[in-house]
Design goal:
alpha+beta, 9% strand, binds zinc ion, 85 residues, flat, 2 helices
C-alpha cells in the first residue's frame, strides 16, 4: 500500500505547461533548438531536441554515467504520468 521512495526524489514540476510556449524547450538540456519543434520530438508531451536524442541513441558503454543519467531522465518522463499499477 505504501509508495516506497528508495533513494530517488520525486520532483513536482509546478511550471507552466510546455504547450503554451511558442518554442519547445528541451527537457534534457533546456535549450530551444533553432528549428524549434522540427528538430526534435515530443515524448509524452515533453520535448527532446535532436542533440539530446542523438545522445540517447548514441550512448555507448564507455559513457556509462551519461547513459545511466539519460535513462534515469527518460524513466522520469515515461512514468511520471503513469498511474501506478
Ligand atoms: Zn536537448
Amino acid at each position: 500500500m505504501g509508495f516506497q521512495n528508495s533513494g530517488g526524489e520525486v520532483k513536482n514540476n509546478n511550471g507552466e505547461p510546455e504547450e503554451r510556449k511558442l518554442l519547445p524547450v528541451c527537457f534534457f538540456c533546456h535549450e530551444v533548438p533553432e528549428e524549434g519543434i522540427r528538430s526534435g520530438f515530443f515524448l509524452r508531451g515533453i520535448f527532446i531536441c535532436e542533440k539530446c536524442e542523438k545522445e540517447l541513441v548514441c550512448s555507448k558503454p564507455e559513457k556509462k554515467d551519461e547513459y545511466m543519467l539519460s535513462i534515469a531522465k527518460l524513466r522520469h518522463i515515461l512514468f511520471k504520468d503513469e498511474p501506478p499499477r
